Sequence to fold (87 residues):
Amino acid sequence: MLKKIFVILIVFISSSAFTQSLIGDGAALVLSGGGARGAYEIGVWKALTDLNIKISGVYGTSVGSINGPGIIMNDYKKVRDLWFKIS
Fold:
């Protein structure tokens, strides 16, 4: 499952000029729903940050909409701590 999420994110990161015109200089991060997937999304976000990939737009549904604000605030520790409290 994590591999599928990662592949989907890579597709969005390497997307066309259309996405560039929507979000400017950076990548769009699309977050899915599905409970535990939210913890995986935070790990993928951390990996993208470690690779110095700028995220200019975050879109999510369900658990993805819970992670989205933390990603926009660029506060990895706060979002990670949220997931540790849930589990």
Summary: The beta strands are 27-31, 55-60. The longest strand covers residues 55-60. Residues 2-86 form one domain.
